[in-house]
Amino acid sequence: MSLCEAEKTFVLHGVEENFRVDGREREDYRPMELETDIVSHAFGSARLRLANTDVLVAVKIEVDAPFPERPYEGKLDFFVDCSANATPDFEGRGGEELAVQISNALSSAYRSPNVFDLRKLCILKGKKCWKLYVDILLLECGGNLFDAVSLAVKAALWNTQVPLVKQVDIDGNNINLDVSDSLSDCQRMDVEKAPIMVTVCKIGERCVVDPNAAEEKCSVGSVVVAVAGRKISTVLQTGTGSLHPVTLLECLTLGVKIAQRLDTALWDTLRQIKPNQDVGFLK
Amino acid sequence: MPKDHKRINGPEETVPYNLFTKLNTKTLLTKFEEAVCNGKRTDLRVPEEHRKIFLKSGIVSQAKGSAYIELGKTKVIVSVFDPREIPNRTDYSLKGEIYCEFKFAPFSCVKRRQHQQDTEEKQYSAIMKQALESTVCRHEFPNFQVDIYALVLHNDGSVLSAAITAAGVALSHAGVPMYDAITSVTLGIQDGIRLLDPNCEEQTLCEIPISSKQESSHGVIIVSMLDTHEQISQFYQYGCISVEDLSASVDVLKQACKNIVPVVQKCLVKHVLRTLNEDVED
């Protein structure tokens, strides 16, 4: 997407007047749709549509050995795939840089044990643990990928059912796991404090949240704030510009405020989801 | 982890022997208390004191510009090469690009590093690029790319900050047009104590929560600043820190970044004097 100078000025003036191109105010989000449990082969999944941005997240679980330096912890890995369906720019290896950026942001946001406790994924100290593969597929890009991805990941992890291990037999070096067959025995994970990322975008002199693709082009730089509970778990800057320390602190406070609102909205939505609800892309 | 089959790789699945030593049985709390004892750290610094810096430019003769930095035991070499046309690019870009490659030497950490870049190194490269993009006047070399390579020889904490500060010096040494001098500082927070420029052990201690209190913060913050413009060109944080702690830390980091600037300036002045002397001799 490329914008001419006049279009950029139009967007900039709109932000200044607190009346953006699509009629929103500076702190408003676009409408969102969330579905969970839509991939039957995955242990948990979610699809989030934020206006034109479409993200599909699926969680797969496998048994693995823990890292020798952290024997009591399971593993959590994020993989982002930028499908060329989203934009032609992602064709070949085009989306790789963005994918690495998003997955790194997620792994540092989920790094602290206060945010997401990996010790719950340990099966047998130093020998066996669960490894969670969180695969994120970007189906359509309409701006604000970080926020959409973090919400979808949180919903998918909430939806994830970790199989229940009934019994562990150790015979020399062989370890046999006896996993419960019944689906109702599965454990849900604690995602109460899983981080939500908010991209605060600086356009002109003002900060906006949830920028669309056109607004992203006009911004000089943006700050991605990952908020877990009432604390900040990760902050990173994206874009090419630099920020004054005062602006940065403004962005952080705004980010925390918005993230808490988003979190409440997400939990309200998740509670409303009933089992065996109609799901799918053609709904 | 992709493997490079053209090299002879070390044996797979090896474990550093340090994990088996007796020291490893200490709890995190005692380790932290030993690291910060009576307001003094193991190297006798007070918590908000930076380590001594050694900075030198022009140490790689083949590169256009280069710098070597030492923060205590941390040692990093950065070299910058001539701008070249952006490879594999069909369209014309109005602004020049910066390519950063951050690499740990295989022997630089406690655990042996592989020859290929892992995800941590890729992330650090991206952060370095972010920091330097707003420092360099990229409109001065459209459709060209400047390559910056950072190699860590010894990792004793705050490596990324060291690499960014050295990269700023190396870029000026290479004569790449820049807006300002860039300095970078790392800060670790644990249980209300702010440790400026943490060493390797302090940095790992700050990554995990020690106190069971929910309200105490822990984490690591890396900030790069442009001095005269008072701009933050890069800000990266991980852990779990409250907004109040974060804003207080930003002030500390701002001051710490300012304190390093004279070291950078002195290094550049030395380089200019050296070049002048060489010209006179010719």
Question: Would you write up a description of this structure?
Answer:
The complex is a heterodimer of chains A (283) and B (282). Chain A is of the alpha+beta class. Chain A has a single domain (5-272), classed as Ribosomal Protein S5, domain 2, CATH 3.30.230. Helices cover 27% and strands 33% of the residues of chain A. Chain A has helices at residues 5-16, 96-109, 145-159, 213-218, 245-272; strands at residues 32-36, 44-50, 53-64, 75-82, 122-124, 128-140, 161-162, 165-171, 174-179, 187-188, 196-203, 206-209, 221-228, 231-238. In chain A, the strands form 4 sheets. In chain A, strands 1, 2, 3, 4, 5 and 6 form a 6-stranded mixed sheet that branches. Chain A is elongated. The mean pLDDT of chain A is 88. With 282 residues, chain B is of the alpha+beta class. Chain B has a single domain (29-281), classed as 2-Layer Sandwich (Ribosomal Protein S5, domain 2). Helix content of chain B is 30%, strand content 27%. Chain B has helices at 28-35, 119-133, 159-173, 200-207, 243-281, and strands at residues 36-37, 40-41, 53-57, 65-71, 74-80, 84-85, 97-104, 144-154, 182-190, 193-196, 218-226, 231-241. In chain B, strands 3, 4, 5, 6, 7 and 8 form a 6-stranded mixed sheet that branches. A 4-stranded antiparallel sheet of chain B has the order 10-9-11-12, with helices on both faces. In chain B, a hairpin with a 2-residue loop joins β9 (182-190) and β10 (193-196). Chain B starts with 27 loop residues before the first helix and ends with a helix. The model of chain B has no long low-confidence stretch (mean pLDDT 89). The chains are: A alpha+beta (283), B alpha+beta (282). At the A-B interface, α2, β13, β14 and α5 of A face α2, β11, β12 and α5 of B. β14 of chain A pairs antiparallel with β12 of chain B.
